[in-house]
């Protein structure tokens, strides 16, 4: 079948290729040939021979059937060709349809793929939507939960704020209340809704409101917190003292919204502080009074016993007298410990280093200590292990107090044996490293007690057979504080039953000093002295001492008697006791100086330990001497003040006496700067500068007080620096020096002393200004 199909295809292709005519001719030839061949073949088979007629007949037959065959075949071929063409067209169409189907299938496949992708995307989007919905539901839940918690916390915070006894309030930039707690409502008598929008002027009394508004403005101006104290008044008229703190608050973008304030009532604390301060003042006054009252007879005992020791006495009398003298000195040391204890409680222990003849000082300690040891039947030695510097700068009174405490304890706790003191010195770079060792053979101190003996009021627990273990328990504590103030310390090495060794180490500068002996023995012109004293014992001691120096003495036993006697005679020196029955020595000095007359030197006599003579000088004195009066102190004052220059002429004497209180002026004023300044520009610019200083100081003091209240160290130092500069510009040397301390927070114990320095500035600058004005007037007249 396949072969026939191929032949038919070949026939058709040949017809198409040759054309109908040529194909017909070729076909006719083929048919004739075929007829001949068939005729020949059949004839041969049947007849065995072939004749020409057979061949002709075959050709004729071939020619006869050829047209029909050609026609038939042509028709068939045409039909076949037509069928083929139709088939071809159909195939083409089928191919096109197939192509379109394939394209449609491709597009359908792509569409299906895209649809699948979209379906997947939709599924994922649906899942994301469901997840987002879940997250949104969760977020809404969390927000609702947070809002509930926030509301609960807000309610709780509000409960806390309302339950707080402290004032809490808010004010905006205009000073209007924006909110408050219940305590503030109770204070103002207004509910929070009523208070919102009001200013302090609408709520408080005028004097209270002015302070509130002023401090608000300070917070707004400086953008820092402020703490101060103020009395506030409740609606019912009850007053309470509050500690108020204000600070600015801001929004998230840093914009200041106003201030928030807190107030804590401290009325009871204020009362307690006032009571405590009063008690402290009363204690100080009591200690001062008792000290003075006890020192007065004690100074007489020390003075008279010292004078009697220089007279002829029997050995027994000399022994008794030495006991009296040493006992009086010991009692004086106890007074010093009590006074220093009070000063230590108020953080006012101070040192006054002065040049000291050190070998003489050591000899004095040796003599007094020997008397103390001899009184108890003990041996005493003092060994100088190294060469001692001729003079050092140290507070001799404090150093003497330390050593007498240690020697006194050594004597007290030693039943038998000896007390030995060694002194050594190591000099390095103009500094003397002093060491005193006080060793005894007494009861000793247990090891576990040695760390406690320097505590205040502590006493070592001794056995019943030790009758010496008595005392105040403050001597060692005060002594160690003093030693540490002097850049040193006290240590102890002891063993029970073997004795104790206390070591004092100090670091002091080396200096030059004029020996007191030279001053005492130097020739002095006889002076006519007025002694103002009310205690007979002190009169006897002072009169004998002054007369022994060759001076004549008149005595006034009251202030009024002194004022009555003064015009009646010419005096070269006035010694004024501070505490008299009718007035103080300061009152006498003021009265005399107010008279405007030329005055001799005025010297204060006091039973108190003198640490700073500024108070005496500020109150009209030229100097001050502690009782009991010592020969060296009186001789030094007489030589420096009363005999400061030879009396050449009456005019020179008058001129000298018209300049009273030069010592005071040197301490208060920078005379060198002032004189040169006045000589150049005249007195008028100085008066103008003084006026400007007077106008500025109240503002400086006000700011300084506010910084003190706020405990603002930088603010205090800054304002003190301004005061120092202003005081220095007009020659107020004393105020300048105090302000220098106040502006230096790096100084030791600055916080403990700043209040005293500020008080000294506030209380002293007015008096110093008066002194400056008086000096300027006097100097202007002389010029």
Offer a few descriptive terms.
five-stranded antiparallel beta sheet, 5 domains, alpha/beta, elongated, Heat Shock Protein 90, Beta-Lactamase, 783 residues, five-stranded mixed beta sheet, 25 helices
Task: Give an account of the 3D structure.
The strands form 4 sheets. A 5-stranded antiparallel β-sheet has the order 2-1-5-4-3, with helices on both faces. A 5-stranded mixed β-sheet has the order 7-9-10-12-11, covered by helices on one side. α2 (20-46) packs across α3 and α15 runs parallel beside α16 (585-594). The chain contains 25 helices and 17 strands. The chain is α/β, with parallel strands linked by helices and 783 residues long. The chain folds into 5 domains: 1-160, no CATH class; 164-333, Beta-Lactamase, CATH 3.30.450; 354-511, Histidine kinase-like ATPase, C-terminal domain (Heat Shock Protein 90, 2-Layer Sandwich), CATH 3.30.565.10; 524-655, 3-Layer(aba) Sandwich (Rossmann fold), CATH 3.40.50; 666-782, Four Helix Bundle (Hemerythrin (Met), subunit A).
């Amino acid at each position: 079948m396949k072969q026939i199909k191929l032949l038919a295809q070949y026939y058709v292709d040949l017809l198409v290729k040759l054309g109908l005519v040529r194909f017909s001719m070729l076909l006719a030839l083929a048919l004739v040939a075929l007829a001949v061949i068939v005729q020949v073949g059949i004839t041969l088979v049947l007849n065995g021979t072939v004749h020409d007629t057979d061949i002709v007949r075959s050709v004729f037959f071939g020619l006869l059937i050829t047209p029909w065959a050609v026609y038939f075949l042509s028709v068939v071929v045409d039909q076949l060709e037509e069928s083929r063409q139709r088939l071809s067209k159909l195939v083409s169409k089928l191919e096109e349809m197939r192509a379109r189907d394939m394209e449609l299938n491709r597009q359908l496949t792509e569409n299906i793929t895209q649809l699948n992708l979209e379906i997947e995307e939709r599924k994922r989007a649906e899942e994301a939507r469901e997840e987002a919905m879940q997250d949104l539901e969760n977020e809404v839940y969390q927000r609702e939960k947070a809002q509930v918690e926030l509301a609960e916390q807000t309610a709780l915070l509000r409960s806390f704020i309302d339950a707080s006894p402290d004032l809490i309030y808010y004010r905006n930039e205009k000073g209007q209340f924006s909110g408050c707690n219940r305590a503030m409502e109770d204070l103002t008598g207004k509910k929070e809704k009523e208070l919102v929008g009001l200013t302090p002027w609408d709520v408080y009394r005028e004097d209270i409101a002015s302070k509130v508004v002023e401090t608000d403005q300070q917070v707004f101006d400086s953008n820092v917190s402020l703490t101060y104290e103020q009395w506030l008044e409740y609606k019912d008229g009850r007053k309470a003292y509050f500690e108020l703190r204000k600070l600015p608050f801001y929004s998230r973008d840093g914009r200041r919204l106003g201030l928030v304030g807190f107030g804590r009532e401290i009325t009871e604390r204020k009362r307690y502080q006032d009571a405590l301060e009063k008690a402290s003042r009363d204690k100080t006054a009591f200690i001062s009074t008792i000290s003075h009252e006890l020192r007065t007879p004690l100074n007489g005992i020390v003075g008279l016993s010292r004078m009697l020791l220089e007279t002829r006495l029997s050995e027994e009398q000399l022994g008794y007298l030495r006991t009296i003298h040493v006992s009086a000195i010991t009692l004086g040391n106890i007074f010093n410990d009590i006074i220093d204890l009070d000063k230590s409680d108020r953080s006012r222990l101070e040192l006054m280093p002065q040049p000291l003849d050190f070998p003489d000082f050591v000899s004095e300690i040796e003599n007094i200590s020997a008397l103390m040891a001899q009184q108890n039947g003990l041996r005493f030695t003092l060994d100088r292990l190294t060469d001692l510097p001729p003079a050092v700068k140290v507070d001799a009174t404090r150093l003497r107090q330390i050593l007498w405490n240690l020697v006194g304890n050594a004597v007290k706790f030693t039943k038998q044996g000896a007390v030995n003191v060694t002194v050594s010195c190591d000099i390095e770079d103009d500094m003397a490293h002093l060491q005193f060792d006080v060793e005894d053979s007494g009861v000793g101190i247990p090891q576990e007690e040695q760390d406690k003996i320097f505590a205040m009021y502590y006493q070592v627990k001794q056995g019943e057979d030790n009758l010496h273990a008595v005392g105040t328990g403050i001597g060692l504590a005060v002594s160690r504080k003093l030693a540490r103030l002097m850049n040193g310390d006290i240590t102890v090495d002891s063993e029970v039953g073997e004795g104790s060794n206390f070591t004092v180490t100090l670091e002091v500068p080396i200096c030059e000093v004029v020996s007191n002996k030279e001053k005492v023995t130097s020739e002095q012109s006889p002076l006519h002295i007025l002694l103002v004293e009310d205690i007979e014992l002190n009169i006897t001691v002072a009169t004998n001492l002054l007369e022994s120096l060759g001076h004549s003495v008149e005595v006034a036993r009251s202030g009024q008697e002194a004022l009555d006697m003064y015009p009646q005679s010419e005096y070269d020196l006035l010694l004024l006791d501070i505490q008299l029955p009718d007035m103080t020595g300061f009152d006498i000095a003021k009265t005399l100086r107010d008279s405007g007359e030329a005055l001799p030197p005025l010297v204060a006599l006091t039973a108190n330990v003198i640490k700073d003579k500024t108070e005496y000088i500020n109150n009209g004195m030229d100097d001050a001497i502690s009782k009991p009066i010592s020969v060296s102190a009186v001789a030094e004052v007489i030589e420096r003040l009363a005999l400061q220059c030879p009396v050449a002429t009456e005019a020179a004497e008058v001129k000298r006496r018209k300049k009273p209180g030069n010592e005071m002026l040197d301490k208060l004023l920078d005379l060198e700067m002032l004189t040169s300044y006045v000589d150049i520009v005249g007195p008028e610019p100085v008066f103008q500068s003084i006026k400007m200083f007077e106008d500025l100081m109240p503002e400086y003091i006000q700011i300084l007080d506010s910084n003190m209240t706020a405990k603002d160290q930088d603010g205090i130092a800054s304002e003190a620096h301004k005061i120092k500069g202003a005081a220095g510009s007009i020659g107020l040397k004393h105020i300048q020096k105090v302000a220098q301390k106040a502006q230096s927070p790096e100084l030791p114990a600055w916080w403990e002393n700043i209040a005293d320095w500020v008080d000294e500035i506030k209380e002293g600058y007015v008096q110093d200004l008066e002194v400056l004005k008086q000096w300027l007037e006097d100097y202007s007249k002389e010029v």
